[in-house]
Amino acid sequence: MTAKNNPKAASVLKKDDLITVAGAGGFIAGALVRYFSDQGFTRIRAIDKKPLPEWYQRTPGVECLCLDLRNEDNCKRACEDAVEVYNLAADMGGMGFIERFRIECLRSILINTHMIEAAYRAGATRFFFSSSACAYNTDLQKDPNVRALKESDAYPAMAERGYGWEKLMSEMFCQEYWSERGFETHTARFHNVFGEFGTWDGGREKAPAALCRKVIECKDQGIDEVVIWGDGKQTRSFMYIDDCTLGIDMIMHCDALIATPINLGSDYLISINDLMLLAEKIGGVTLKHKHDLSAPQGVAGRNSDNTFIQQVLGWAPSTPLEDGLRKTYTWIEKQYNDRKAGKRTVS
Ligand code: NAD
Description:
Blueprint: H1 9-12, E1 19-22, H2 27-38, E2 44-48, E3 63-66, H3 72-79, E4 84-87, H4 95-98, H5 102-107, H6 109-121, E5 126-132, H7 163-181, E6 184-190, E7 193-194, H8 207-221, E8 225-229, E9 235-237, E10 239-240, H9 241-252, E11 262-264, E12 269-271, H10 272-283, E13 288-292, H11 307-313, H12 321-340
Parallel strand pairs: 1-2, 1-4, 2-3, 4-5, 5-6, 6-11, 7-10, 8-13
Antiparallel strand pairs: 9-12
Nicotinamide-adenine-dinucleotide binds near residues 89 and 92.
């Protein structure tokens, strides 16, 4: 799918305009920093609360700061002189994390509250917020054969407890900063994102990385049975990271999307059972499936309706799932082997 001639950072900003990216020690913001650096931007400030050695990736030439952005003064420091601010920092993880740690998820409201105010006071031109499909009404997601979610489905609100409500509330901040103060904000509702340099172990990982890791573990340990959370009939769509970074850039620079939350996700729906089979195909094994019905599995089904993004941008994420998963599998396998060899790895 080709994009219309949409403005992107490269055509709107000067190469030495300062871009602040929050959450850059993590998966998506880390990739976004690299994306901007690849576009030739020379002043990028990357921030995360994790100590620098624990960042998933560090891009050479980028100013990297270890700051906890729940703190107001740290947000002022992060936004000083910034022309654009991208807030992707949040305490988050896959289903296993967001169902168990709702308070931590809710407390991310502090990050967005202080970051948007600091960006506004610093005189930034634009502010980006990473919302989530978890902001959608859960009543519409009770069937694995879901109707894809369109932007208006967030209201009447019945978001995912904890994580989803925080996203919805932060979206509202973004909309009110535009309507009351004329501060330009852009919000994307990400549907599951996956790829290299994402969390793959430790409890915060999401389904694609978790399933790849399980296949790799089974192969390595000679086990022929794999555990799937829930009955595996739950469905989701998964967006490859390169589509996500390009989408963020286009959404941020589209005037029709000021203060207008929009889906950023793949609309290719797949069950967790079928995703497992795909990971096995990539790994070249066939495993028996054991279902853990007591494990968290989230809503029954969730997909992205891409009508609106097609209409405004003439583009939607289109990397084939198998292509993205193959790259992700290869990267996780290397991490796994490196860890076994006692080397430092991501997550
Ligand atoms: P991630 O966990 O890899 O990255 C988030 C980063 O934010 C982490 O490195 C974390 O240390 C940092 N952070 C947390 N609290 C902080 C604080 N107080 N101060 C500074 N940094 C802090 O997650 P990700 O997958 O890269 O997600 C990025 C954004 O996209 C998040 O807002 C998330 O809610 C949203 N999102 C992600 C997905 C997905 O599938 N990955 C889906 C929907 C929405």
